[in-house]
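Risk mitigation, structural track. In case the binding assays with pyridoxal-5'-phosphate fail to produce interpretable data, a predicted complex structure has been prepared as a fallback.
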Amino acid sequence: MTAISTAVPARTGAFDVDRIRADFPILDLEVNGKPLVFLDNAASSQMPQPVIDRIARYQSAEHANIHRAVHYLSEKATAEYEAARRKAQAFINAGEEREVIITTGTTDGINLVAHGYGRKFFGEGDEIILTTLEHHSNIVPWQMVAGEKGAKIRVAPINDNGEVLLEEYRKLFTKNTKFVAITHVSNALGTINPVKEMIALAHQHGVPVLVDGAQAAPHMGVDVQDLDCDFYAFSGHKLCGPTGIGILYGKAALLEKMQPFKGGGDMILSVTFEKTTYNTIPHKFEAGTPPIMAAIALGAAIDYLNGVGIDTIAAHETDLLDYATQEVNRTPGVRIIGTAERKAAVLSFAVEGVHPHDVGTLLNDEGVAIRTGHHCAQPVMQRFKVPATCRASFAFYNTMAEVDALVSAIRKVQKIFN
Ligand SMILES: Cc1ncc(COP(=O)(O)O)c(C=O)c1O
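Fallback model:
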């Protein structure tokens, strides 16, 4: 993180957060008689009017099932669905359109790789490397496949700041290492992993790498070719799109070698009772009727984010995080959990003597929405010996005044409990 000053940081360049907020109708809500301060963006971010409008337009003038008919609506829906794929391709700079699979979310994408790649290529005694920072979605699918194939999970540990110990990661590689699956940004702590370096290391051992980009794609520019990752998964609902949609990038050569995870619908070229010939990628991995409306809305969300500018988003969120870190650090009795050098828009903390759920409930009374719990990252909680944390997570539409509201609500909680 950048050095912390004692003053409210200046606004980033010409970024006009009020103009941005006007695009998000939900931000005008009042909760418990107070203006909503929405700081649960790592769970799901909010949707701007152009994305809401895009959904309405699709439903009222474009809806039909895709890829299977010659009538106007089906062709229109197909064209828009495929256009969304190209928008996602450009968003992460994937080399080819066929390397972009439309999924229902990060979890779905990771399961696709765990089952599609792991079931085919893992065997007895093989090893899969994860890190302590992983979300359950990047642990459980690997455990399921490892259990089935007799493979083992090995875990790269983290230090007290919540950073992966690269030396320990390096030492985990053996001749049995078959796969690495790592998060780009920790949802529980905000740590930004040095994934490019970690990928390069895995590749020195000839091991493919999946990056869980659920918390990175909304907050920083992602270039899968520059990272040289083999797979990259993210979700639409964390980047101003709807739920039930996500993207899995995979290098074409690997996708070609993998078996499909789900069968039926568009993933076939021909079927007899004796044999099925699979479709070409990416369709081989898109079984059944896909989330057409959600994919098109994700395309609109990507357009929206591009319009704001991903670098502008990252810069404003860094200002928010730095200011929030400064103010929370100035509040005795509040401890930040996760103090990595490089962090994205997540502030996890504990209030001395108050259970996180009580903090969350009392903050809600003030209109402040944070998340409390284990954040689907129980190994991180175990590492820091806490059952749960309070987590404020920022988006580009949040303001410095909302950080003030958070901190003043925390101080109110402390007063109630002291
Ligand atoms: C780092 C990380 N990975 C995976 C996921 C799972 O995403 P989804 O529920 O959209 O599949 C999340 C969601 O919080 C996450 O933060």
